[in-house]
Amino acid sequence: MKFIKEHKITSIVILVFVCVIVLLFMAWTIFFSKGGNPVYGNRLEGIEKVKVTDSEEDKISSELKKDKSVKDVDTNIAGRTLDIVITVDDDTLENNTVTIRDRDTMQQIKLNINELANYINERIKF
Question: Three-class SS of residue 93?
Answer without folding.
Answer: helix
